[in-house]
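Reviewer 2 asked us to include a model.

Predict the structure of this chain.
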Amino acid sequence: MKMTAKDLGDLIGRLDSPGLSKFIRPTEALHELKALYYISTDSGLHQRGIAGKLKISLGLANEVLRRLKGKRYIRYSLNTHSTFYELTQNGEAHLDSESHQLKEAAGLLGSRDKSYIDA
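Predicted model (structure tokens):
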């Protein structure tokens, strides 16, 4: 069953919640997954916006986007003042696959831990 954008958004929101974020150290893979999610949900998102949503520096956001472009998960279009990003088919497939793994990993948390996440 395909995970909806809302489900993935809820899951990412839980990862960013104050109760859990202090225990989870963001990895490259998590930054990439979140960037793919944000790009998939906001067609007008540019590099600075992605950095803000990921809560990382602009330089690190540029590195994440460069990796995603190198993996052919995203493509970009140039505007007069900004670069905008969109997912490729490979990016959509990767987002779907990784989000299912993330959901399964989150499901490993016990009910007591889940209530802590939802706080």
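Residues 89-107 form the longest helix (19 residues). The radius of gyration is 15 Å. We have added this to the supplementary material.
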